């Protein structure tokens, strides 16, 4: 016997959560988890797409992401408006250039707000009047040089620089957070206004409060500043505890 459908008029929501697009590297084991740790509790919808990244970490490999940015961004809810797009690579942003990342993203999603870890870090430093920093990265020396030069151009003084000297994202992500905390606490931060931990793959988000208490200075990380700028850009202004002083502002 044939069944005749009964058509029911749908009722759509009148209000929608802001939409955030996250461009995460195919090799990054950490950034998506960090975004979920904070954003899952907020009235914000995060949609992730992965951009191909080749190991080992070199400027040449980082630059290969440039031509992919527009296409990967377009595949996040094709045809839908995205409020903010976050490009999840600190060293990649410096290699490619902030303006070029923004231009490529906005070719796919016109009028969206674009942020990156390094863009958001500079914005956070300005907010909290940070002029001099100590820096820690997991990167090899050739990439560390680009980080140092970038901050110098932005008139941020780098007083000390520590590194694990690794070149694989999987190694970055598998650093023991407890060991990372112990390492950061031992860094020379004397004279610095704050400590900046570079790299979206490094598991730093969960230890920021602990390190801040130990060194009595603000501590910033790539994912923390990126998440902070992302959620503030879509209108979420309430303080968030557990992830450093920045997110409590």
List keywords for this structure.
249 residues; alpha/beta; Rossmann fold; 2 domains; 4-stranded parallel β-sheet; 8 strands; 16% strand
SSE topology:
Elements: E1 19-25, H1 31-39, E2 45-51, H2 59-63, H3 69-74, E3 84-87, H4 90-96, H5 98-108, E4 113-115, H6 117-127, E5 132-137, H7 141-153, E6 157-163, H8 169-173, H9 177-185, E7 194-197, H10 208-215, E8 219-221, H11 222-233, H12 245-248
Helix pairs in contact: 1-11, 6-11, 9-10
Please give a structural write-up.
The protein is built from 12 helices and 8 strands. With 249 residues, it is α/β, with parallel strands linked by helices. It folds into 2 domains: 19-116 and 226-248, Rossmann fold, CATH 3.40.50; 119-221, Rossmann fold. The strands form 2 sheets. It has a 4-stranded parallel beta sheet, sandwiched between helices. A 4-stranded parallel beta sheet has the order 6-5-7-8. Helix 1 packs across helix 11 and helix 6 (117-127) packs across helix 11. The chain starts with 18 loop residues before the first strand and ends with a helix.
Let me know the largest β-sheet: 4 strands, parallel
Rg, alpha carbons: 19 Å
| Estimated share of beta-strand residues | 15-25%
Terminal-residue CA separation: 64 Å
Provide the low-confidence segments as ranges: none
CATH level 3 topology of the largest domain: Rossmann fold
| Strand order across the largest sheet | 2-1-3-4
> Which CATH top level class of the largest domain fits?
Alpha Beta
Number of domains: 2
